[in-house]
Write a structure and sequence with these properties.
Helix content is about 75%, strand content about 0%. It is mostly helical. The model has no long low-confidence stretch (mean pLDDT about 90). It comes from Gekko japonicus.
Length: about 240
């Protein structure tokens, strides 16, 4: 959706999952340190199944929202009097949610069945992030400079998260990689909100000059501040759980 709500919805999902991961992986890491046998508590397996189900539900909500808003495509990809594509931006967002939904389903099977290899869940989540980045890379062509730049910065978090998750496939239960993933998810969450505020001011305030290079410079600096905030949230959660 080309409006503030369309960016706030995925922003909320990414922020909530990033916050949850920073708590879950910190808890699991410290519980294993306290466990004499070095094994995690079995309750975390159940939490992973629930997390997969929640991610699947969030993806379905996102797909339905993109398709069935009043000005959405309503599952029509091609049509109209001129036989044109119908709301391709909504379709791109729907495709993004689809792959996160697939990732959630894989999570459910990975942690509820011994027949699914461990690591497949992280691989599919990495694929979902790669698909998101791939879609957004071609999402911003032929747009004003600020619009292109603010979306391009999002690709840093997207592809960075995908690369980190790919490493997690081979380096299981690495707390550094897990917290790195959490921080990038938080960054994506807050940055989606930032994109919404810049391009679609929710309270009808003056819009940003999308051709002003000074705005491009400021938004780059603002991206760094967002990541500093994400690191702070992860550090606070880790420290509180450690205590």
């Amino acid at each position: 959706m080309a409006n503030f709500k369309g960016h706030a919805l995925p922003g909320s999902f990414f922020f909530l999952f990033g916050f949850w991961w920073s708590v879950k992986y910190s808890l699991r890491y410290h519980s294993r340190r306290l466990n004499k046998n070095g094994h995690g508590n079995s309750r975390f397996g159940h939490l992973d199944v629930i997390e997969g189900a929640v991610r699947t539900i969030c993806a379905v909500i996102g797909m339905l929202a993109e398709q069935f808003v009043p000005d959405g495509p309503h599952l029509h990809l091609y049509g109209g009097q001129n036989r044109d594509w119908v709301k391709l931006m909504n379709w791109q967002h729907t495709t993004m949610y689809l792959f996160f939904g697939i990732s959630g389903v894989v999570d459910i099977f990975t942690y509820s069945s011994a027949k699914v290899p461990i690591g497949l869940d992280r691989l599919m989540l990495s694929v979902a992030l790669l698909v998101e980045g791939f879609l957004f890379y071609f999402h911003i062509t032929q747009r004003p400079p600020l619009d292109q730049h603010i979306h391009a910065l999002l690709l840093i978090a997207t592809f960075g998260g995908a690369a980190g998750l790919l490493l997690e496939v081979f380096l299981q239960d690495n707390i550094i990689l897990e917290l790195f993933r959490s921080s990038l998810a938080l960054l994506q969450g807050t940055w989606f909100f930032q994109i919404g505020f810049v391009l679609y001011p929710p309270w009808g305030g003056p819009s940003w000059d999308v051709a002003d290079h000074s705005n491009v410079m400021f938004i780059t600096m603002c991206f760094c501040w967002h990541y500093a905030l994400a690191i702070l949230i992860v550090a606070v959660n880790y420290t509180v759980i450690c205590w």
